[in-house]
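Form 7-S
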Amino acid sequence: MPSIYDLKSRFQGLLRPLVGRLARAGITANQVTLAAVGLSLAGGAALALAPGHPLPLVLLPVLLFLRMALNAVDGMLAREHDQSSRLGAVLNELGDVVSDIALYLPFALLPGVAGWLPVAICLLAVIGEMTGVIGIQIGASRRYDGPMGKSDRALVFGTLGVFIGFGLIDPVVVQIVLAATAVLGVLTIFNRARQALAETQEGPRP
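Output:
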């Protein structure tokens, strides 16, 4: 299934000159990874401490874009500038999960929104990323299949942030969007598992 993740290579091409300058300046991939997590925690704290306040919600797409850029930069530093490490792999996977929870769980505090929906989305996101990593364990590649991967979640929540912040959307519609996001999260888990199994040519077993 298609995902915004498919656009990653083009985005990386735009960032490559910046990545080169960062590498020459001695900036490491792990430092960038931790910076992305710190940024997400700060943004999540702002959302949680002032539920429904327009400013953190409207600025959420900017924060998510910066996080996406930092995530792309750390990967390019690791791959293209010989900075790959086991610690980096651990930080990358854990950092994505922590950042998602920090930024999206505060939506459970919004007035008029059923709190269990953002909680369910965060839980499914964790399971989805774990499913992607399991691909490596069974001899396949790390799976990033959609339809609701990391970049797709960012698009959904960033858009919701703007619409909620400017008062352009009813809480009922917000809940419908969140419910649809949760359903797509379930489909993502099954899709990643199916693609990982297909890659190993085992196929799903009864």
